[in-house]
Amino acid sequence: MTLDHHIxxxxxxxxxxxxxxxxxxxxxxxxxxARLLVQRHSKPLYGLAGRMLNASDAEDVVQEAFIRLWNQAxxxxxxxKIATWxxxxxxxxxxxxxxxxxxxDLDAIPEPTDPSQDLYAHHANQQLANRLDAAxxxxxxxxxxxxxxxxxxxxxxxEAAQIMEIGVKALESLLxxxxxTLRQSLKDLHNGSSS
Length: 195
Hints:
The chain is mainly α. The chain has helices spanning 2-8, 12-27, 31-52, 55-72, 82-100, 119-138, 141-152, 157-164, 168-185, 187-190.
């Protein structure tokens, strides 16, 4: 039973091999492979960019990352991990964008609503989501990116450090400072009161 589950779940090396095959097909001009690669990777890339930029700018950044990948397709080294490379490019483009627009706060991203929830629960969840988004928006961009990569997108600390082009210890420090700041910003929620 465990073996069947293991076989049914593609391994990370299978994912890397599939991506490498798609890149080779893209280099040969296969547009269907390009669409498939976008489908496989766009959601987490939008997640990262959307936590750092407004929705319109996030879309531009993700599109730019894929354009850069297509331009690299013929020179792609099979040992390179596409997901990590794409996230690094998106992260760097977001940082560049934020540097150009210094002092502008990120737009809050509304959470999708669940129509099955009662009105009170929905309102409370929306308030919590808004508070969390606001607290995340107040973090410095590098801390916000570290939190997004590790806690929102599920990257390991090693992968997140590679994407951000920093050491694991530096990433751990960013996460620690971010958690401390978030705890302070949201301490009234922990104490049972609300604003």
